[in-house]
Each structure stands twice: as C-alpha cells, then as structure tokens.
Amino acid sequence: MTARRHTNLTIRGVTYRDADHAAAKLKVHPVNVRAHARAGTLHRCGAGKSGVEPMPVCVRGVDFESAEAAAAHFGLHISVVYRRLAAGRPNDIGRPNARGQHIAKPVVIGPVSFRSMRDADRALGFGKDYVQKAFKRNSQSMLERVFAAAMQYAATSKGARQ
Fold it and tell me: Three-state SS for 108?
C-alpha cells in the first residue's frame, strides 16, 4: 500500500486528516477533494461552486467582483466581457461598437441627424436596413413612415439638430 498523498488538508479553516475524511465530512466524493487539492482550490471544495474562479474586473476605474457583475452593470452578455478582456481592451466594455463606423454614412432625416443609417434604424424603431431601403427604393410610403418616426423622435427632444 502506498502512502497517502493528500493528508492534513485545511478546507475553510478546518483541518482534515486525509481526502477520505474530508470527503465524508463535506458530503462529496474523495476524488473531488483530491482534484481540488491538486488544483489549489480547496476553499471551493464542497461549497457547491463549480466553474471558473470569480475574477475581479476593473473597467474604466470601476472595480467589479466578477465578470458577471460587470456584464450585469453594463447590460451586456458575459461573453462580451470575456471577449474584451481576452483582446486586452477592458475599457471598451460597455461602449458602443466602433466596427464599420469608418464607412458609415451620416444621414439627416428631417430635424434629426444620425451617425449612420443603422443608427437611424435603431433610434426610430425600425428593423435592420429599413431606412437604407426606404432611401434606395425611393418608396413614398416607406419614406413617409421614416419621416413620421423622425418627427416623433425629434419631438421627444432626444435628437433635434441645433
């Protein structure tokens, strides 16, 4: 019989004589305790926490306890936060995506100006490319809907041009 490798394990302030004893007290499998001992995450053993260790995230000087908290604060999906962190751009979290804006055409609809036709679609409540198709087709009914929505948008004093 070989000597036990994982002995005198301290888990959240309590010392157990070996992995089997810790597993019996924590109501988990001994393999689980050994895996946590190898990974150096004994503080999470038997706590019901699975997955990656929560990582603090700092976005533009604001500290969040985890990426999930940052995503919830900015109203984003967690994958967006991880994508920006992996790209080395944590300060871009929560900012509008600048992709494609170098080719965007500014558009003026009545008293309102937008950075692009897609921004006009979003602000006026239309589906993707509706404003672009209205101008391209020169459709009277589509243009009337766009101008009516722009007038209503300007009336809410969000985007009136100065």
Answer: strand
Kindly report the pTM of this predicted structure. Answer: 0.45
Which residues on neighbouring strands pair with residue 15, listed in sequence order? Answer: 10
Max Cα–Cα distance, the chain, nearest Å: 88
- What is the spatial distance between Cα 126 and Cα 117, in angstroms, rounded to a whole number? 11
Q: What local confidence, expressed as pLDDT, does residue 162 receive?
A: 40
The first and second tokens of residue 22, run together, are 């810790």
Token reading at 111: 């008293």
Is the CB of residue 114 less than 8 Å from the CB of residue 159? yes
- The full set of domain ranges for the chain reads 7-44, 57-92, 107-155
Dihedrals phi, psi of 98, to nearest 5 degrees:
-90, 0
Residue 126: helix, strand or coil by DSSP? Answer: coil
Q: Which of 134, 90, 89 is nearest to 109 (CA)?
A: 134
Q: Do the Cβ atoms of 122 and 86 come closer than 8 Å?
A: no
